[in-house]
TrEMBL record:
<protein>
    <recommendedName>
        <fullName>Coenzyme F390 synthetase</fullName>
    </recommendedName>
</protein>
<dbReference type="InterPro" id="IPR042099">
    <property type="entry name" value="ANL_N_sf"/>
</dbReference>
<dbReference type="InterPro" id="IPR053158">
    <property type="entry name" value="CapK_Type1_Caps_Biosynth"/>
</dbReference>
Length: 464
């Protein structure tokens, strides 16, 4: 069978589409802001309504979900019934990609061809957008959004700004990925199209540090808000402390990697402010701090997040979870139901002092994503190794590679890390799981290799 390639969108038509979609975003934004004021009961009713609509649509239009949802009373399905459904993993989602999507003609082959050929922001068939996520382990996944669902996704990233009282006209510099293949680049291209919003600059996180510093210094008017991966913000803060980076941001936010205490301290030292951490994923959602209560508010009107243990069992709010399961309630094109995000988090449903009833992620503690397997049958969870490294004082960033006799660990530090103590603790972790510990090497490095989107890679991607 001949593969259908994406239908190219001529420049003129593309401009018309973006203008129309941006205009529709304004209405979605106002509705989304109002939902930040809904009480918990109204939010729960909204989730239940959206969940039933999603399940019915998925069962009718997706062969994969038709089989998986068979035998369930979808018209009366509730949020409490979700644990009766299996978890959807990234591997399964990519393997079953064509059968999961609900739009005839949209296939993994077409999406892959579209993403690989992107040289800027473009639609598929004048309606759909596709992005690729790599994650911190470097394994790719595709995510497809229809017209309305893309608007909703973008809206999530903007509606909290006004609630926190930040200046919507502040000059912003984003240091993530500028490629429309990735979420941050696609959002930047869409939001900055022909102006119409605050002055915004995008700097690819893979740029040499010196080049990024020069470009940030030369922005006029000067940068007032700075966003980026935590590991990159740490490097920029060091440049500011040394006098090479001269911008004076009044707001710094980080996302996409674990934000360690040395990163927060570097921001305080360089600019005299606290770093603001937000959380997001290419699968369709964000969580933002309110500036009053602890943690980050999730989009309780648009997604369901289930904190779960390593085996997939839902854990009570307030207890640390090993993983988080996402049900995206607003994207019927690619239904993600109990999708495993592998983020280790702690969530709460306790009232927030700010008055917003949206539940909160109190902390992102790491990822549970794969294991190291050794000769003799020993299986060592990568999460145990990660948590040991992250808990070590002075560690900013890290990379863990498996070797025959243990692990090779590279760490970026603030200079205070006891490398010998970390080596001993990692050996203990390996030993507890029956793994070898004859060759555990820990060394300090200046930086960790970045993936194509600029995020650093924390693990050897060849591991299971």
């Amino acid at each position: 069978m001949q593969t259908m390639l994406p239908t190219p969108t001529p420049g003129g038509i593309y401009s018309e589409l973006v203008r129309r979609q941006r205009a529709e975003l304004q209405d979605a934004y106002m509705k989304g802001v109002r939902r930040l004021r809904w009480d918990a009961a109204r939010l729960a009713a909204e989730r239940e309504r959206r969940l039933r609509e999603l399940l019915v649509h998925a069962a009718e239009h997706s062969p994969f979900w038709r089989e998986r949802l068979a035998g369930h009373d979808l018209a009366n399905f509730t949020e409490a019934d979700l644990p009766s459904l299996p978890i959807l993993t990234k591997t399964e989602m990519m393997t079953e990609f064509d059968r999961i999507l609900t739009v005839p003609g949209l296939t993994r082959a077409r999406i892959s061809e579209h993403i690989s050929s992107l040289d800027g922001d473009r639609y598929i068939d004048d309606e759909y957008r596709a992005i690729v996520s790599s994650g911190y382990a470097g394994t790719e996944a595709y995510h497809v959004y229809g017209w309305d669902s893309f608007i909703t996704f973008v809206m999530q990233g903007s509606r909290w700004t006004g609630r926190r009282g930040e200046d919507p006209a502040a000059v912003l510099a984003q240091c993530f990925s500028c490629s429309a293949r990735h979420e941050s680049g696609a959002f930047y291209a869409f939001s900055s199209f022909e102006g119409g919003g605050p002055t915004s600059h995008c700097f690819d996180a893979t740029l040499p540090l010196g080049a990024m510093v020069d470009r940030l210094n030369n922005i006029r008017p000067g940068v007032e808000a700075l966003q980026g991966w935590p590991s990159l913000i740490w490097e920029l803060a060091q440049e500011a402390r040394l006098g090479r980076l001269t911008i004076k941001p009044t707001w710094v936010s980080v996302a996409g990697e674990l934000c360690t205490e040395p990163v927060r301290e570097a921001v305080r030292s360089a600019w005299g402010i606290e770093a603001s951490e937000f959380w997001g994923c290419s699968e369709g959602t964000y969580a933002f701090p309110c500036g009053v209560g602890e943690g980050m508010h999730v989009a309780d009107d648009l997604v369901i997040l289930e904190p779960a243990d390593a085996d997939g069992n839902v854990v009570p709010y307030g207890q640390p979870a090993a993983r988080m399961l996402l049900t995206n309630l607003f994207n019927p094109v690619q239904p993600l139901i109990r999708y495993d995000l592998t983020d280790a988090v702690t969530m709460t449903d306790e009232p927030c002092p700010c008055g917003c009833a949206h539940r909160r992620i109190l902390s992102v503690n790491g990822r549970i994503d794969g294991v190291f397997k050794y000769d003799g049958g020993a299986v060592v969870p990568r999460a145990d190794l990660e948590q040991t490294v992250v808990a070590t004082p002075g560690v900013v960033n890290f990379f863990i590679d498996q070797n025959h006799g243990g692990v090779d660990v590279s760490v970026v530090t603030d200079g205070s890390t006891d490398l010998q103590q970390l080596r001993t603790e990692l050996s203990d972790v390996l030993g507890r799981h029956g793994g070898p510990s004859t060759d555990v090497d820990v060394r300090a490095v200046d930086s960790i290799k970045r993936l194509s989107r600029g995020k650093t890679r924390q693990f050897d991607t060849e591991a299971v």
